[in-house]
Design goal:
Keywords: Repeat, TPR repeat. It comes from Caenorhabditis angaria. InterPro entries: TPR-like_helical_dom_sf (IPR011990). This is Tetratricopeptide repeat protein. One of its GO terms (molecular function) is Hsp70 protein binding. The protein is globular. The protein is 73% helix and 0% strand. The protein contains four helices and no strands. Helix 3 packs antiparallel against helix 4. It is mostly helical.
Length: 70
Amino acid sequence: MKRPIGAIADCDRAISINPDSAQGYKFRGRANRLLGKWVEAKTDLATACKLDYDDTANEWLKEVEPNRIL
């Protein structure tokens, strides 16, 4: 992902259109993770897994959880 800030804006729009789409939360979580926004990343990735479990999103969530305490 080369432009995480742009990706977040795109995902925000996608989520506003379809708030039940796990993909928007998954990729917004990834972008937040790349920017070091650990709390936001955890929230988005957990939501993505809740809506539609995904192994990749779950792995990213495991990487984010220890960092959100920092």
